[in-house]
Write a structure and sequence with these properties.
- This protein is mostly helical.
- It has one domain.
- The protein is built from eight helices and no strands.
- Helix 2 runs antiparallel to helix 3, helix 2 packs antiparallel against helix 4 and helix 5 runs antiparallel to helix 8.
- The longest helix has 77 residues.
- It starts with a helix and ends with a helix.
- It holds the Pfam family DUF6090.
- InterPro entries: DUF6090.
- Keywords: Membrane, Transmembrane, Transmembrane helix.
């Protein structure tokens, strides 16, 4: 079409028809501009299509990661509830008549209580989305906002887990090393009890730890830390479940 107009324009120049020449020249320019705009629009359509495909693939992978993290969080929620129950049981023993206390019960509760909980999260897809800009391609504003804020929640959980772990390592465990016969406890509840064998100090009664106010304080603190950690886990789980719904 442009070549055709060019030939007409050339003939008009030869015939000295300037007015018609200008009309055809303007028409030729308009066609060129229209062609450029169409090409740009087609390119934009292709880019939008590619971005949509990339976004859908990213969201599919992210959904799998979110579902894995929901399961991992549920496991730690169950463990945290068990630990809270164990601290409550030990605290109740302080108010129980000494004749009704059982050393084996104390050992079993302590074995649970000293465990350090940590959610083993998978975050590779989320981190990829943050680093490469894949999250920015997601059309939903609310979903993007939730994803951008997820790392902050993870950091808060890790911080709480560190606080609990430090309290166990620096406070509760040193006290138990001094006042508790670990081998007696391990002989009953450890998976390696067959190898570790029985204590050489059978006369030691682990119930003796109940005479120390420091031990009561340590268990009481363990209770409150575990309650806070459970709350963090449950809030995180709620966020993950909301993400799951939005990604489906």
């Amino acid at each position: 079409m442009i070549k055709f107009l060019g030939r007409i324009r050339y003939k008009l120049m030869e015939k000295n028809k300037i007015g018609q020449y200008l009309k055809y020249a303007v028409g030729e320019i308009i066609l060129v501009v229209i062609g450029i705009l169409l090409a740009l629009q087609i390119n934009n359509w292709n880019n939008e299509k590619n971005n949509r495909i990339e976004s859908e693939r990213f969201m599919d992978r992210l959904l799998k990661e979110v579902r894995y993290n929901i399961e991992a969080t549920n496991r730690e929620i169950d463990r945290e509830k068990d630990q809270i129950g164990s601290t409550v049981a030990i605290l109740d023993m302080f108010n129980t008549d000494a004749s009704k206390r059982q050393s084996r019960t104390l050992d079993s509760m302590l074995f649970i209580c000293i465990g350090k909980n940590q959610i083993e999260l998978k975050l590779s897809t989320l981190n990829e989305g943050l680093n490469t800009g894949s999250i920015a391609l997601i059309p939903s504003d609310s979903l993007r906002t939730l994803l951008y804020g997820l790392q902050t929640l993870v950091d808060e959980i890790k911080h709480m887990e560190e606080i609990n772990a430090e309290d166990i390592d620096n406070n509760l465990t040193p006290f138990l090393y001094e006042h508790l016969n670990w081998r007696t406890m391990d002989a009953e509840f450890s998976e390696y009890s067959d190898e570790s064998g029985n204590t050489a100090f059978p006369e030691h009664d682990n119930l003796n730890v109940l005479q120390y106010m420091l031990f009561e304080n340590l268990i009481d603190n363990r209770f409150y830390n575990s309650k806070e950690q459970l709350e963090e886990y449950e809030n995180f789980k709620n966020t993950l479940e909301l993400l799951e719904q939005m990604l489906e």
